[in-house]
Amino acid sequence: MIVFPVKTNKENSSVSPLFGKAKYFAFYDGEKTTIEANPYNKGSMIIDWFLSKGVDKIVIKEMGIKPFNKLKNTNIKVLYAGDDKVTTNDVVENFENNNLKLISEEELLTIVKNHKGAKAH
Questions:
Q1: Which residues are CB-neighbours of 41 under 8 A, at least 6 positions away?
Q2: Overall domain count for the chain
Q3: Pair type for strands 24-28 and 77-80
Q4: Which range marks the domain in which residue 20 is found?
Q5: Tell me, what's the pLDDT at 15?
Q6: CATH label of the domain that carries residue 86
Q7: Which residues contact 82 (CB under 8 A, 6 or more apart)?
Q8: Which of 32, 45, 48, 111 is the 20 to 30 Å CA partner of 55?
Q9: What whole-number distance in Å separates Cα of residue 5 and Cα of residue 25?
Q10: Lateral strand order in the sheet of 2-6
């Protein structure tokens, strides 16, 4: 199952650049997409929630250091949604067509650093 942060709970919502503070997450099990409200406000607690739901892939635009550190100790793979505006349907289609890039730990660290810099402005 894959999961990714979305801006609203509406059908075909835009993917949120936020991760830990995203209001909603879309779960795709290979057949259908469901959207659930984020029950937490911290990325590290969200990872436990994902693990309990059987998530094995996360699709992100940005991520902070705490969820990144928590992810390092799991089998969850991190895929990149891209910089452009991306919708739920785009992510599902790109996932189905193997067009989402698997992010290496080094690349993810760069995203984390950029995320930290963006927050400071």
A1: 20, 21
A2: 1
A3: unpaired
A4: 2-120
A5: 95
A6: 3.30.420.130
A7: 61
A8: 111
A9: 4
A10: 33-37, 24-28, 2-6, 57-60, 77-80, 101-102
Q: Across the chain, what does the average pLDDT equal?
A: 88
Q: Which tokens sit at 54?
A: 């059987």
What is the number of helices (H) and of strands (E) in the chain?
4, 6
Which residues does 22 contact at the CB level (< 8 Å), separation at least 6? 5, 6, 7, 16, 38
List pLDDT tens digits, range 59-97: 999 888 888 888 888 999 999 998 889 999 999 999 999
* Bridge partners (DSSP) listed for residue 77: 57
Whole-number Å distance between alpha carbons of 102 and 93: 16
0.85 surpassed by pTM: yes
CB 3 within 8 A of CB 27: yes
Q: How far apart, in whole angstroms, are the C-alpha atoms of residue 68 and residue 112?
A: 8
